[in-house]
Amino acid sequence: MIVGIGVDLVDLARFERAVDRTPKLRDRLFAESERDKPLRSLAGRFAAKEALIKALGSSDGVRWLDITVSNSAEGDPRFDLSGQTADVVAARGITSLHLSMSHDAGAAIAFVVAERADAQAGGS
């Protein structure tokens, strides 16, 4: 059952200005494995993390560095959650997160669907 959806759009030029103005943003927002990616990839990851927070319904207990965006063996984007953020997702009963990302025409977008197993499925 879908329990949340989130979408976020990032203007690439604005994102680049923010990172240039505040270089420590890379350290605050991105895991070490993400920091050396090109700015358009970082903008997409930022959008993904924002979309995840929206799908969760709040940012309570969510920590930016607990959320890493990586790719499956097939190249599909996915979340790798750890720490307090993984605990928040589990406590909300979320069993699956779906992520789609794209960047074009000066913008990066991400869409997230959060699901949990339906308590009624397979039941009486």
Describe the structure.
The chain is built from four helices and five strands. It has helices at 12-21, 25-29, 39-56, 83-91; strands at 2-11, 67-71, 77-81, 96-104, 107-115. A three-stranded antiparallel sheet has the order 1-5-4. A two-stranded antiparallel sheet has the order 2-3. The two termini are 17 Å apart.
Descriptors:
single chain; 124 residues; alpha+beta; 34% helix; 31% strand
In terms of topology, how is this protein built?
Layout: E1 2-11, H1 12-21, H2 25-29, H3 39-56, E2 67-71, E3 77-81, H4 83-91, E4 96-104, E5 107-115
Antiparallel strand pairs: 1-5, 2-3, 4-5
Task: Explain briefly what this protein structure is.
The chain starts with a strand and ends in a 9-residue tail after the last strand. The radius of gyration is 15 Å and the shape is globular. The chain has helices spanning 12-21, 25-29, 39-56, 83-91; strands at residues 2-11, 67-71, 77-81, 96-104, 107-115.
